[in-house]
Amino acid sequence: MMGWWKNKKEVRLLVHLLLPLCIHWIAEEMTKSVLVDITTNALCPGHSTCQEAIYLNGLQQTVVGIFKMVVLPVLGQLSDDHGRKPLLLITMSTTIVPFILLAISKTKSFVYAYYVLRTISFIISQGSIFCIAAAYVADVVDDNKRTAGFSWMMGLFSASHVLGNVLARFLPEGYIFEVSIALLVFCPVYMTLFLPETITPAPQGDQRLPYLKKACKIVEQRYHSMRHAANIIISSPTLKCISLISFFYELGMSGIDSILLYYLKAAFGFNKNQFSEILMVVGMGSIISQILVLPTINPLVGEKVILCAALLSSTVYALLYGLAWASWVPYLAASFGVVNILVKPSTYALISKSSSSNNQGKTQGFIAGLQAISSLLSPLAMTPLTNLFLSRNAPFNCKGFSLVCASLFLAISLLFAWMLKPNPSHKTSEVAAENIEAPLLS
């Protein structure tokens, strides 16, 4: 850990990234537990469960998944070509307007408008903030410190979850969105003033071309860049295996995340306070595991062992939620989040070490695009399955059966992780592509 403090420039560059990211995540997390009550009360007043809210949530995730398949790889490529800073500013600013709507009113029409704008926001920001931030970390941190860098980033993500849920737990409901909006506005302002750029933007040639030809050239460049990213993945056995791991992991976890709080509300009558408590259980343990434990054990066991342990924990996590027989079992299941949260930083590290410095955004974005396909497919099965087993027409008594099904996909992801053969020293061979720039800071 002392190696971090020997290079003050690395620390300063990371602080200017991680501070606004942390505040952004706090602002988003503090609204999560109260959104379930707001949407249920607006769409199904007087009911503890709301099929319309569950279906609307599943529809949102499906639409987001469709567009993210294209948007995420493109945003990753654009960050390689035009810089991390402008892409981070765009993606982090999209959350502000949807929350302004709910701060104004929580009626049915405003909730529908919120879902529309939040869907657009998710398409642009969900996943892309992580992959662009991961590319930034790879730009400014040496190879042997990247796992710790990703671990710190994810650890602060967990810390933000805890702080966000503490605010949600103790702030009056009427002030939650106002505070969240103020924090969300602060983040792009801070980045504009203090975040340095880490790559040289691509030269802007052909400025005098007609707009139609210029648009066609941009599309052609994006196509070639996407083919380049696909070739990088295909040419690396490690990246191919990580792609499969990420696909099945996201297939299971995105399905769980989309319905978990609604399931807990319907099955055990949980409310905002209990949601916050469960999320805090995960967050508090995750801070320790990511900021302290992962950087310490990674040099001893490597990313593969950590990834396998985290995926095993994820499988148990899903099974416990799905088979929960009492209201205390979800708290036990949540404790496994302390380990399964390590999937993300270990995956980012494996992707980064298997990619050249010129292609960090492309590879992170391409694999994030594969995860978007999973987040598209998952709610198509999870939403109707959850509603069926929460209804009186369930084939048998297992309200969390959809979560048990999700655990099977996590087990498949674990199987691929077990077969993974990481090669940290490998740098993917370069293939011909346009607009490839090396980072200024490496």
From TrEMBL:
Domain Major facilitator superfamily (MFS) profile positions: 1-425
Signal sequence residues: 1-29
Origin: domain of life: Eukaryota
One GO CC term, this protein: membrane
Entries under InterPro entries matching the protein: MFS (IPR011701), MFS_dom (IPR020846), MFS_trans_sf (IPR036259)
Family designation: Belongs to the major facilitator superfamily. Phosphate:H(+) symporter (TC 2.A.1.9) family.
PANTHER family noted in UniProt: MAJOR FACILITATOR SUPERFAMILY DOMAIN-CONTAINING PROTEIN 10 (PTHR23504), OS11G0151500 PROTEIN (PTHR23504:SF108)
Protein name: Major facilitator superfamily (MFS) profile domain-containing protein
Organism: Cinchona calisaya
Biological classification of the source: Eukaryota, Viridiplantae, Streptophyta, Embryophyta, Tracheophyta
